[in-house]
Amino acid sequence: MNNAKRFLVIAATLGFAAGLVACSTVTVNTDYDPTANFSQYKTFTIMPLAQFQTNTLAADRIKAAITQALQARELSQASGTADLQITVFAKLSQETQVSSTGMGYGWGRGWRGGGGTATIQNVDVGTLVVDLVDASTNKLVWRGTASDTIGQNKSGEEKQEALNSAMNKMFAKYPPGAGK
């Protein structure tokens, strides 16, 4: 892959991470190790976001969104050794979306036909993966993913709000088993 193409792919991926659109369209999935004792985890640290070296704005927004979501669940960010290490990865893909409008057939002074239109377009979809790794065993204990179409025309505040909403939705059932 040449450097210009690589730059465009990285820039689009990083743009996604900073620009998740409204949480109502965010698709979130989580998975976890059922043998992990989540009550033992009290502190976390977010590992350097190497994928975001060239976009510190996106990295800072992602870190802030994860931090607020975990602190709302009574975990504390550690300045040194932590119980959980958080790693983040972003992926960009394309999805085909079909929108159609039309008129049906019916009866009214004879049979009437209808017509319609269909619009097919490729849209960029980004996925943000957040892994929680037990720092003492280096074992993955929880993974969350958030996927959405990429909204490029958002302000910095709108991007942060969208990321906060996505992370809150992602961590809504953390720790696993809470509220059972």
Describe this structure in words.
- Helix 1 (3-18) packs parallel to helix 2 (56-71) and helix 2 crosses helix 3.
- This protein has a single domain, classed as Double Stranded RNA Binding Domain.
- The chain is α/β, with parallel strands linked by helices and 180 residues long.
- It has 3 helices and 8 strands.
- It has helices at 3-18, 56-71, 156-170, and strands spanning 27-32, 43-46, 76-77, 84-102, 106-108, 110-112, 116-134, 139-149.
Structure characteristics:
180 residues, alpha/beta, Double Stranded RNA Binding Domain, 6-stranded mixed β-sheet, two-stranded antiparallel ribbon, 37% strand, elongated
Summarize this, please?
The chain is of the alpha/beta class.
- Write down the Rg: 21 Å
In the residues, how many domains can be counted? 1
- Secondary-structure-based class equals alpha/beta
Strand order of the largest sheet: 1-8-7-4-2-3
**SSE order:** HEEHEEEEEEH
Please give the structural blueprint:
Layout: H1 3-18, E1 27-32, E2 43-46, H2 56-71, E3 76-77, E4 84-102, E5 106-108, E6 110-112, E7 116-134, E8 139-149, H3 156-170
Parallel strand pairs: 2-3, 2-4
Antiparallel strand pairs: 1-8, 4-7, 5-6, 7-8
